[in-house]
Amino acid sequence: MAHCNRFTDMPMTRREMLQTASAGFGTMALAALMGDSAYGATVSPGVDALAPHFKPRIRNIVFLYMDGGVSQVDSFDPKPRLTQEDGKPFAMKMEPTQFDNNGDTLGSPWEFNHYGESGIPVSDLFPHVGACADELCVVRSMTSNFSEHNAANYFLHTGHGQAGRPSMGAWTVYGLGSESQNLPGYVVLNSGLIPSGGIDCFASGFLPAAYQASMLRAERPTLANVAPTEAKPELQRNKLDAMRELDAAAIERLGNHDALEAAIANYELAYRMQSAVPELTDLSGETEATKTLYGLDSDYEQTRIYGTQCLTARRLIERGVRFIELTCPGIKGADRWDAHANLRFNHGNNAKAVDQPIAGLLKDLKARGLLDETLVVWTGEFGRTPFAQGRDGRDHNPFGFSMWMAGGGIKKGHIYGATDEFGYKAVENKVEIYDLHATMLHLLGFDHERLTYRYSGRDMRLTDVHGHVLHDILA
């Protein structure tokens, strides 16, 4: 092949060809077979998987992100003393808050009821989730290192308080790859709100670009530009083949290049998603009972939106997608779960949107035998103060808040950790975000200290130099 007007490659001799190719023909045949799911392919093309360090307890993670921060004392951590001292000066020292508009002690406007054989107390905000209490492990002693949304969101998603690090989902697919040939290994279902900090919360950071999230929207079409513009599939296939040849020539000339290799893989994946995504999001084959279970017949639009996303999450699990994150639906006047004022309206409407769909997801996964191999994680980036902001709101509180997990490898009907009598700070079995990440990776079959990627001169990991597996909550 001519490189310029003066020089041309010398033809390769037969001996040189055999020496160079070696077992190449057999390897090519094997690669073709291994790319077929019938012969054991487990990852999407362009995304290599590592071997787990030990037998995984789960295959998938569904991350239910409660954007803005749910109040622990109004959801899963009842505090009678708050009710007793409602409206009185707060009896503990107040740490600096985001808006420095601290008021008096604020009791919860919601009653708590004990659910299931475990008797876990859950507020009236979540009656449907409460009915699933015997599946939950509620952690009441979560903490965060940040009290501002952007940094706290980056920290929750990536283990670092600034943008640029790989997200939980990216690390998951880096470790395990994807079982789906026609869908990404890491999907974010956007119900309407993108977290503060933007899509960097879902990025691949210094990992190869193929590991970043693909976002599906709540509205139609769920994926931009999913419909082909060519009249015939052959025309599109010809374009992709030509693009592949050009990109391959560039890689041969310039050497490996992450962005270019990821682009090749993504073009091919996008081609297959054109048929996979419409089928995924077509819920017409679901029974009316299933749709009702998820709240798709609710008179509240936001319940229908989030219910559709939860049902889609189950369908993604069935199709082998490893990590699925759901964002919250937008609610006019509620501004996420970020209840700096009008707590009752804010938390009431947000809970109404997500409560039934989340319970539907848990029940549906269990009925189909999928919950034992799926980890469901519910949390915000921090909690909220037990004292008022102004008169009827709550400010950010990273010192102690609640989250829960359910599914494979997790103790059922269990409460772990505790906050003080006001629900302000973790005082028993304090849990950090690093510990949550370490536990998630452990259930996926990885030692968080050994799942690393060489970057900037050192081995980087999701948990940095921190983190302990929460063995006390493992079944």
CATH C-level class: Alpha Beta
Q: Main β-sheet: number of strands, strand sense, barrel status?
A: 8 strands, mixed
- Percent of residues in helices: 25-40%
Query: How many beta strands in the DSSP annotation?
Result: 18
What is the CATH topology classification name?
Alkaline Phosphatase, subunit A
List the total number of helices: 12
**CATH evolutionary superfamily:** Alkaline Phosphatase, subunit A
The SSE string, one letter per element, is: HHEHEEEHEHHEEHHHHEHEEEEEEEEHEE
Identify the overall geometry.
Answer: globular
Rg calculated over all Cα atoms: 25 Å
Q: Any guess at the CATH architecture?
A: 3-Layer(aba) Sandwich
Mean pLDDT, nearest integer?
Answer: 87
**Number of domain units:** 1
Brief digest:
It is built from twelve helices and 18 strands. The protein has 475 residues and is an alpha/beta fold.
Describe the fold and architecture.
The protein is built from 12 helices and 18 strands. It is α/β, with parallel strands linked by helices. The protein has a single domain (54-225, 288-473), classed as Alkaline Phosphatase, subunit A, CATH 3.40.720. A hairpin with a 4-residue loop joins strand 3 (112-115) and strand 4. Helix 7 packs antiparallel against helix 8 and helix 10 packs parallel to helix 11 (343-367).
